[in-house]
Amino acid sequence: MDICRDLIRIDTTNPGDHSGPGERAAAEYVAGLLSEVGAEPQIYESHPKRSSVVARIPGEDPSRDALLIHGHLDVVPASASDWSRDPFSGEIADGCVWGRGAVDMKDMDAMMLAAVRQRLREGRKPARDVVLAFPADEEAGGTWGADYLIKNHRDLFEGCTKAIGEVGGFSVSVGDQRMYAVQIAEKGIAWMRLLASGTAGHGSMIHSDNAVTELAEAIARIGRHEWPTEIPPSTRAFLEAVGEALGTGFDPENPQAVISKLGGMAKLVSATIQDTSNPTRLGGGYKVNVIPQTATAEVDGRFLPGHDDSYLEQIDRLLGDSVSREFIFHGPSVETAPDGSLYEAMSSSLLAEDPDGKVVPYCLSAGTDAKSFSELGMRCFGFSPLRLPAEMDFAGMFHGIDERVPVDGLQFGVRVLDRLLDNC
What we know:
Distance between the termini: 25 Å
Strand content: 25-35%
Largest sheet: 6 strands, mixed
Strand order of the largest sheet: 1-2-6-3-7-18
Radius of gyration: 23 Å
Oligomer: single chain
Number of helices: 13
Number of strands: 19
Shape: globular
Structural class: alpha+beta
């Protein structure tokens, strides 16, 4: 609880460029906590103030493959006037720690640190080598964090074949069943900048090649496009478990019949049965009576596992011949299977703390640093274990106002992670 509170109080807002405070202060705090118990963390700065921390914790059997546990240090912006409590106060109230990053993802950072610090103080090694990584810049795609680390310090992850990070291992209450959703897949990201060009001129004249018009028509096609429903194996497995818990079963021809019963989780799951393309910004011109030569727009595109190529082909058809695109950020989809020793260890560690729970796989509609680490051949899972109140809209906390995490949920997560380090 104290570590989570302290991390929230360190403002690591990431506006998407280098104008924020950066992660340096948080990185120094994390490194200090690890050094205090005998670890040897290193801080890596990709740009002034843009700092990540990595430490390797020796295991009982160093000949085994190593496990990477990662949690980013940056957070998205927060406007204090929108919140009922200061988003950077780390206030503890109503049984929760409040503040920006409480669930995304300084809670996991705190749980990682608490579990490892306790083990090192007690002289208990994990079953295998564990690499702890606290990257910068995840909220803007990871260029100055995880991506920088794998490109410039690949040796830090020597022997790591599996990884856990956000967003998974949290409880979802369905009827009388408490399910723990372990992330085995996540959608790919295509953040795109669109450009239309035309002939500049006086606004009183007739112009058949108006850049604003061309761009507006393309944006309308993209924003209104109805992407077909396609249920990936990870989402199907999750919805089948939900249908079983509800006693209704799951009809793949009508997935919304089950999804609609998921409360705040419904928006997240709905986005994992189709690709999406949401226009988010428009720009062009500088005066009402001047037709601009160019107009620009930005689109947040997300695509299902396996759609990496087909998605962009469809986007290009929607753009037409008069509008071009470039990537602001492009990250692949990530997918693995709900099997193997690590998945079993995650499951057994959760159920040891909550015998009445049920572990199910799912697909995340957003993206994480797993996109970078998967490039090193690691099997990546989302596993930030939390037992949550049934009424809590956990999915709505991500990038939302009044973000908070239950104190007893953090304590549950530390116990689960401690077990995992023995069982993995």
